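[job 4471] stage=fold_predict status=RUNNING
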Amino acid sequence: DHYILKHADGSHNIKALTPIDEFNEYFSSNFPTKDFDTIGGLVMHQFGYVPKRGEVVTLNTFNFSVIRADKRRIRLMKLMRQDS
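[job 4471] inference complete, writing structure tokens
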């Protein structure tokens, strides 16, 4: 998976261009694919604006932290799962 990189601490680096269906398959999640094609689009919609580096948003049990973004879109995120 070139979109998703797992770290020893259990976190993952996720490219914003990761297709939602690929994300869902990798993490056994069920984010809808109807409104957004990529995980970055879904996360940016949750923010409601283009976030800056270090900003965090939580969707279901996933904490998305922005690693890299430009003026128009998120590029790279760090993902940590909350303990359920």
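[job 4471] summary: The chain has one domain: 4-81.
[job 4471] exit 0
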